[in-house]
UniProtKB/TrEMBL annotation:
Protein name per the record: ABC transporter permease
Pfam families the UniProt entry points to: ABC2_membrane_6 (PF06182)
Transmembrane segments: 40-64, 79-97, 135-157, 163-191, 212-232, 252-272
InterPro entries documented for this protein: ABC-2_transporter-like (IPR010390)
Keyword line: Membrane, Transmembrane, Transmembrane helix
Matches recorded under PANTHER family: INTEGRAL MEMBRANE TRANSPORT PROTEIN, SLR0610 PROTEIN-RELATED
Domain of life the protein comes from: Bacteria
């Protein structure tokens, strides 16, 4: 009897999960349709963002064309770091940029309280409702830049290498998504936390535009063990580029991007759930 009840409960749980997944996907589709309804505006946004990222890509190339290399990293090797960072950031920003950068304002205005009244997971509801379709352009150009670097570096990648590239991007996306969530969580207790967001989302990430090996040991330790952004691009790039630039760390680090991303993201979810339990409405 107990086994039958357990089986029925599992079936109900799976059906409920499928219903929720369908509902979240509906929110995303509505958002995409709304953005693409005005095709000219969507296309202009796509092109304008492409110009911005292409200009930044070109500036790195020009800088390295003059100096030839940075700490033994050539032009397209450094640009490969840039492309990995851009692509994983854009994939994370699809779901996380608007939900978590706007969370302080939503809490302050009382709008966040409305999310908690829904019979849905607040985090998933927030991420699907605030999905940012315009980041398609960022991902497209990030993948284009990865392709350019692979071509220019004449990298001969096997099926496993492409799979590992996919795994690397998934892990990097989890790291970037976790950063968005971590910077938003203090909003449950602080009215403004823009300095934390600026530090984690932008200031620290500026370091990984270039090989981490150019920085002092203290910075290398921070970017590896404390704010592990080096796993987004620097360590996995060692695998694809055939480098041995592991600094004071073990070569195994080149394979750990997905593991690091999974741990950080799981920690972000746990902290988010704890923050929700501690949250008190502003009464607005």
């Amino acid at each position: 009897m107990g086994m039958v009840e357990g089986s029925a409960q599992n079936i109900r749980t799976r059906r409920l999960a499928m219903d929720y997944a369908s509902l979240y996907w509906t929110f995303i589709r509505i958002n995409i349709k709304a953005k693409t309804e005005y095709r000219a505006a969507f296309l202009l946004t796509f092109l304008s963002r492409g110009i911005v990222w292409s200009t930044e890509f070109a500036l790195i190339w020009v800088l390295l064309y003059k100096f030839q290399s940075i700490a033994g990293w050539g032009q397209y090797e450094v640009m490969f770091l840039y492309a990995l960072n851009l692509t994983s950031y854009s994939l994370a920003a699809f779901f996380c940029f608007h939900p978590f950068t706007k969370l302080p304002a939503k809490i302050q205005s009382g709008e966040f309280d409305e999310l908690l009244t829904k019979p849905m997971n607040p985090l998933l509801y927030l991420m699907s409702r605030e999905f940012t379709a315009s980041y398609f352009s960022n991902v497209a150009f990030g993948m284009l830049f990865i392709g350019i670097c692979i071509s220019q570096l004449k990298l001969s990648l096997s099926a496993w290498d492409f799979f590992f590239l996919f795994i690397t991007l998934v892990g990097g996306t989890l790291i970037q998504a976790a950063a968005f969530i971590y910077t938003a969580i203090p909003s449950f207790w602080m009215v403004r936390n823009t300095s934390i967001a600026q530090l984690l989302l932008f200031d620290f990430k500026d370091f990984i535009r270039y090989p981490v090996s150019i920085y002092p040991a203290s910075i290398q330790i921070v970017l590896t063990l404390i704010v592990p952004y080096a796993f987004i691009n620097f360590y996995p790039a060692q695998y694809f580029l055939g480098k041995q630039d592991f600094l004071m760390f073990h070569p195994l680090f080149q394979y750990l991007t997905l593991a690091v991303g999974s741990v950080l993201f799981a920690g972000a979810l746990l902290l988010w759930n704890w923050g929700i339990k501690q949250y008190h409405s502003t009464g607005s």
